[in-house]
Amino acid sequence: MRSCRVALAQVNTTVGDIDGNCARIREGIAAAREAGAVIVAFPELAVTGYPPEDLVLRRSFCEASRAAAAALAPATAGIIAVVGFVDTAGGEPFNAAAVFVDGRRADTYYKRLLPNYGVFDEERYFGRGLTTPVYRAGDLAFGVSVCEDIWDPDGPVSGMALGGAELCININASPYHRGRGAERAAMLATRAGDNRIAIAYVNAVGGQDELVFDGHSMVLDPRGEVVATGPQFREELLVVDLELDRAAGVARRPAPSPGPGDIREVELDFAPDLTAPADPVRPHSPPLPDEAEVWEALVLGTRDYLAKTGFTKAYIGLSGGIDSSVVAAVAADALGPGNVTGVSMPSRYSSDHSESDAHALARNLGIEILTIPIEPAHAAMLEMLAEPFAGTDPGLAEENLQSRQRGNILMTLANKFGALVLTTGNKSEMATGYATLYGDMAGGFAVLKDVPKTLTYDIARWRNTAAGHDLIPRSVLEKPPSAELRPDQLDADSLPPYEVLDPILGAYVEDDRSGPEIVAMGFDEGTVRHVLALVDRNEYKRRQSPPGVKITPRAFGRDRRLPIANRYRDW
Prior knowledge:
Layout: E1 3-10, H1 18-34, E2 39-41, H2 59-70, E3 80-89, E4 92-101, E5 104-110, H3 122-125, E6 131-137, E7 140-146, H4 156-162, E8 167-172, H5 180-195, E9 198-203, E10 205-208, E11 211-214, E12 218-220, E13 226-229, E14 236-243, E15 262-268, H6 290-309, E16 314-317, H7 322-335, E17 340-344, H8 352-365, E18 368-371, H9 375-384, H10 386-389, H11 396-417, E19 420-423, H12 427-432, E20 445-446, H13 453-467, H14 474-478, H15 498-510, H16 515-520, H17 525-537, H18 539-543
Parallel strand pairs: 1-2, 2-3, 6-15, 7-8, 8-9, 16-17, 16-19, 17-18, 19-20
Antiparallel strand pairs: 1-14, 3-4, 4-5, 6-7, 9-12, 10-11, 12-13
Helix pairs in contact: 6-7, 6-13, 7-8, 7-13, 9-11, 15-17
């Protein structure tokens, strides 16, 4: 029985930190060699970080990537290493995987399928690879592919299997969203089983702007059965013993006619020991439950956004409501309670329980809280505006004035003490414009930007369960949501109940369903028209909002790009 010990290094890289990323790669190679691995693989574009976006358009960046990748070769003595980097050939950048063998770079694979949807713009930056290599190292035959390459059933994996490869090393920077793990596992099982090829899938981990990479690397045998899995949302060197002889003698599908994806064989002057160990290593990290998964994505995304942009401390406006409470709890988990400051800014309309709930939350989390009433500034501004406002009834302008004063206080504190403001609006509010531009939308990072209101409650309850007590006060979860910008105000005065609103928003924003299609799903036509009108006319607000963690299949920002000046309606 032949066996190949594979190491998958799900590492947290930083875009542009080429030296730091390469240091992590060298550490991973050394650890894999120490663990007795034959092959170690790192994520897509591990040298540069992913996604490098328009940095790829800079010649100096591409040259730095090439030089750094070449300098990794000596570190690969005694092992095979697959490392993602930006390469150039004929002056054109490529999303590439360097194949190192025993201290030298033996080959370079160029990604063949370039995603150009959702958050991906790879056709903007990279050329397409044209060949599918099959590497032969002694008795081991394997192929290499990059992320999107494996999603096409007739893509490179099929080609390498037809060429005799028994193992596919697939390197990835696959962003997280809810349900993505199950989608990946199902796809990989199908690809492995259809092609009778083992798959070693390594994924990046960490936050990069609004994207979060969840790791959860895995190895599957040629039957499509999962042999081992790595953890979610943390770095890990996943070391796995993979039996190779399960694929031996399996009939391959007929080869396709020759084309631009021609198979090429590459002989590697390296013969690894494929002796099966007496006690195979096959670790499993089960996937997290849904709410826990979302929470960990928010924590990792927030922690890395601050760390990778040079911030260590955060300010949050604490209203005593569900959204600010959840953001504060996420921040405390991400940054440590000592690096989070909540600011209670009561107005003439604030209820007593709002302030008491904010202080109770701060005590529970162990974070500092400041109380800065806005009434003096509010009264002064109203007096300043008395003449131009004369003869008008109080309305949105007066309500939003309070929110903007709070935003001003938070931004001034953050500016004074070198911190970042975390905004507290959720996806339901961002979708409908139920937020104040330059007020509660002012800040550097929007933790809940892609989290609907109903899910915000769900993850709050989960966090309390995980804590074993009401970390987020029960009164926060039980009281009806309100902006408290006028007497007796409730969210329900302006919006449908969130249990109705969120499914409509999901259908329109995430699934691109038309108004009539949503009505056909069973929703009231008047409600649907109202909600869609709110979404459409508030695009200008969202375009000015800070980035936030992506946790749904289609988030506001890179995922969804609609014109601000837009009169199309599908009714």
